[in-house]
Design goal:
This protein is mainly alpha-helical and about 80 residues long. It has one domain. It is about 65% helix and about 0% strand. The radius of gyration is 16 Å and the shape is flat. The chain starts with 5 loop residues before the first helix and ends in a 14-residue tail after the last helix.
């Protein structure tokens, strides 16, 4: 996984939020909600590493759902411009 800096992450989140009404993003949003519901039903059946993996998946899904529904999590107040 490549490291991403805060302005790049902010820009990606803005793009996702700005596209939230497009059919592809709507389909992904619907799938994420269904997958999150599936994860919620699995908690009691898992333990150990399987539970840890499910928790990580649920956190990633929740994070992306928040970006689609609420916009960027990362707020950029000022960008430095390199005049090199």
């Amino acid at each position: 996984m490549s490291e991403i800096n805060k302005p790049e992450q902010h820009d990606r989140e803005v793009q996702i939020f700005s596209s939230r009404h497009e059919p592809g993003v709507c389909a992904v949003w619907e799938w994420l909600r269904m997958r999150r519901a599936w994860c919620d039903r699995q908690w009691s059946q898992l333990a150990g590493d399987d539970l840890t993996r499910l928790q990580g998946e649920a956190q990633a899904i929740t994070s992306l759902l928040r970006v689609i529904e609420n916009g960027p999590r990362i707020k950029i107040t000022e960008r430095k411009i390199d005049h090199a």
